[in-house]
Amino acid sequence: MIQLFSSPFFNIVINIFGGLAIFMYAMEMLGSHLQNVVGDKIEKVLRKLTDNPSSGMVVGALVTFLTQSSSITVLTLIGLVNVGVLNLSQGMGILLGAEIGTTLTAQLVTLEIGKMYFPLVIIGLILAKFGKEKTKSLGKVIFSFGLLFLGMELMKTGAKPIGKDPMVLSLFESFASNPILGIIAGATFTAVTSSSSATTSLVVALGIANVIALPAGITLILGANIGTTFLELIAVFGLSLTAKRIAVAQGVINILGVVLMLPFIQPFAQLMALTSDHLGNQIANSHTVFNVGSSMVFLVFVKLIVKLVEKIMPGEVVTVERGAKYIDDALIRMPHLALVNSEKEVERLSQIVDQSFFHISQYFSSRDDNLLSTVTTQEEFVNKLHLQTNEYLIKVSEHEFNKESSEKLAKLMHGLTDLERTHDHLNKAAEYTQIGHNKRVKFTDKELHLVGEFSNHCYSFYRKALRAFLSGNVKESKKLTKEMKKLSLLKEGIIKKINQTDKEKVELLNKIVHNVERAAHHGENLTDIVVSGF
Questions:
Q1: Domain boundary pick from 255, 284, 312
Q2: 204 Rama class: left (phi>0) / alpha (psi -120 to 50) / beta
Q3: Residues above pLDDT 70, as percent of the chain
Q4: CB neighbours (10 Å) of residue 161?
Q5: Same domain flag for 266 and 370
Q6: Could you tell me if 201 and 106 are in contact, meaning their C-beta atoms sit under 8 angstroms apart?
Q7: Which whole-number Å values give the CA distances from 158 to 43, 150, 193, 464, in the listed order?
Q8: b or e along 303-323 (b: 16 or more beta carbons within 10 Å of the residue's beta carbon)?
Q9: Which domain holds residue 462?
Q10: 34 found inside a domain
Q11: CB atoms near residue 210 (< 10 Å)
Q12: Exposure of 112 in the CB half-sphere (CA atoms within 13 A)
């Protein structure tokens, strides 16, 4: 055992994979700290400067360049697309830009860093521990860069001796003679590490050590471009249709780019060999030229790619206007007009909640996952609109009103809270249903029919309660209170009919049914507001 640890082979493995581990951890730290420093700015830039795919590509490249992570850019993009801030065409430009920005990491590996990582680690640690708030954040970024460079150096050091191993050389030669093998190896390694930068940096380090030939290095890098799409495909599961299309678009672009390059690997390698005398630089330059070139080519065909992705992922995109529509601080000087507009905003929110309840009630008969993802997508918007409208109503309440207007104001404030809580329960019901789907829990047709039937009853009740609330119908509100008791009895009957042998399934169905019932119960709260005369 001691001989194994002291063997040259063990030292090589430790240096290469130890360096890779430090590199990946440093990349994660760097991305996290940079997000803390400029995270909100990234979102604002992506929101504002993406009117067309060309400007989106510039922004995507710049943001990825600054954060040193295409994943941060793409995942932020998916978040913005998921809530409807950006559309698919705008997102395409940012995707293409991220492919360009990510090439910087491979270029960094080619630098002759020497012992530069130690000063960066020391300076970064001092600033992070003893600096002021902003200086601490900067210190963490510097410290992360130091670790990044340390990982690079360890990979380079570890790679040098393996160039003498016949088996390793034979393996890399097979990648050059059979590019498909190299592409599969690069894609697999990237999927496992969830980092294309880790793959490309390791390949460049192997090139610097003259362990790998340029054509083989190019195949591994092409594979990394395909492997990087797996993380985004996993990230969009359960999100909106447009968010899923963004992830699929990245896969289409990366795979199509590799397929088009496949017949030209050898001539491309010959061309890239002219860019530098050093193999590491040649590999890094190949990565840069391929990514920049393919992004520029695909930019011309953005509309065609959008149509292709829409055919691969068919379905209707549900769009909702974002942000408050009617409330305006300028109207607070005219409190009665502000109250009227607040009422319109509450009605608008009620329509969104009503739509989500309808989607939940329809899911169990249609089994359409887009209905669930629409509900979860709306949750963030409902929360923001609730907060924005509630803060506005608090400002309005500072003015004096007559009895009728005061009651209306109280009604709106209480009703607003119940609307938001209704959607919370609908969102939980959707999430638990998705959990069951992800875990491959087998719900029987009978069980789904029972839950669907109960959801329809709850939605029917809630819709009547919502109408009574919006219209202020006291008579209808009093009548609906009795209906809620029937729903509670119906829920108990459904639970008894569910097969009790599978505990995980029973628990999930209980949570789904419970949250649907709680959502309906907030409808009863809305009728209570009308009856109490707020």
A1: 312
A2: alpha
A3: 78
A4: 17
A5: no
A6: yes
A7: 39, 12, 19, 71
A8: eebbeebbeebeeeebebeee
A9: 329-532
A10: yes
A11: 13
A12: 1
Rounded Cα–Cα distance for residues 8 and 1 (Å):
14
Q: Are residues 233 and 381 in the same domain?
A: no
The region of weakest confidence among 6-15, 263-272, 437-446 is: 6-15
pLDDT (0 to 100) of residue 420: 93
Q: Are residues 299 and 368 in the same domain?
A: no
Handedness of CA 239, 245, 246, 252 (dihedral sign): positive
Nearest Cα to 80, choosing from 239, 284, 228?
239
Last residue of a domain, one of 244, 278, 312: 312
Q: Kindly state the percentage of the chain with pLDDT values over 90.
A: 10
Q: Other C-beta atoms within 10 Å of 511: how many?
A: 17
Contact (CB, 8 A) for 448 and 364:
yes
Distance CA 178, CA 439 (A): 38
Asked whether residue 1 is assigned to any structural domain, the reply reads no
The verdict on residue 17 lying in a domain is: yes
Q: pLDDT by residue (tens digit) across 32-84?
A: 666 555 544 555 566 555 567 777 788 778 777 766 666 667 766 776 666 56
**Residue (of 419, 421, 425, 427) closest to 348 by Cα position:** 419
Report helix, strand or coil for 175. helix
More confident residue, 233 or 407: 407
Contact 68, 105 (CB under 8 A): yes
Structure tokens at 442: 């087998």
Residue 163, pLDDT above cutoff 60: no
Residue 131: CB atoms within 10 A of its CB come to: 15
- Are residues 463 and 513 both part of a single domain? yes
For 478, residues 6+ apart whose C-beta sits below 8 A from its C-beta are 527, 531
- Could you tell me if 281 and 104 are in contact, meaning their C-beta atoms sit under 8 angstroms apart? no
H-helix segments, 209-264: 214-227, 229-235, 241-261
Average pLDDT of the chain is 79
Task: State the sign of the Cα–Cα–Cα–Cα dihedral 181, 187, 192, 193.
Answer: positive
Q: What is the pLDDT of residues 292-329, one digit of tens each?
A: 999 898 888 888 888 888 888 887 665 555 567 777 77
- The pLDDT score that the predictor gives to residue 422 is 94
Distances (CA, A) of 313 to 289, 316, 464: 31, 10, 36
Kindly state whether residues 148 and 267 are assigned to the same domain: yes
Same domain, 137 and 45: yes
Count of beta carbons in the 10 Å neighbourhood of residue 54: 14
Q: What is the CATH number of the domain that holds 440?
A: 1.20.58.220
Please indicate, yes or no, whether residues 402 and 451 belong to a single structural domain of this protein: yes
Q: Assess if residue 308 is contained within a domain.
A: yes
Q: Looking at the structure, do residues 404 and 489 belong to the same domain, yes or no?
A: yes
Domain count, the chain: 2
